[in-house]
Amino acid sequence: MIGIPLGLLAANATEWVVHKYVLHGLGKKKSSFWSFHWHEHHAESRTNVMRDPHYADRSVLGWHAQGKEALALVGAAAAITPLFPVAPFFVAAGWYSAWNYYRVHKRSHEDPAWAREHLTWHYDHHM
Q: Which end of the chain is more exposed for a tag (fewer CB within 10 A), N or C?
């Protein structure tokens, strides 16, 4: 059962590192695969006072910011899946974290008032 807190901790640390160094590092270059985050998602959020209308008007199955975000999360979840036989709780916590990240992130950009109250750091990050 120690895998649950370790999985949650690993997922949180991974999200922080990827966000800082990949999405905000490599993502600043327009030619990068990761540029969707900075040049599309942040631009939409700034223009629309935290709201990113593409979460509501696009399918997650597309080659755009929301689709690439989902693909990266599915890829991360798939990458830890081989550990399941030896660390099932760790892997399950990672899968949960990927699902919960997308759910909460999407909601924060569909409902800015909710984000401002419940995810103040994320709201401040975009505004």
A: N
Q: Which distant-in-sequence residues (6+ apart) come within 8 Å of 37 by Cβ?
A: 23, 24, 27, 65, 69
CB 6 within 8 A of CB 97: no
Q: Is the pLDDT of residue 58 over 90?
A: no
d(CA 89, CA 125): 31
The region, left, alpha or beta by phi > 0 then psi within -120 to 50, assigned to residue 49 is: left
What confidence tens digit (pLDDT) does each residue in 73-99 have? Answer: 999 999 999 999 999 999 999 999 999
* Sole residue written with tokens 């008032």: 113
Q: What is the average pLDDT value for the chain, to the nearest integer?
A: 94
Give the whole-angstrom CA distance, residue 81 versus residue 96.
Answer: 12
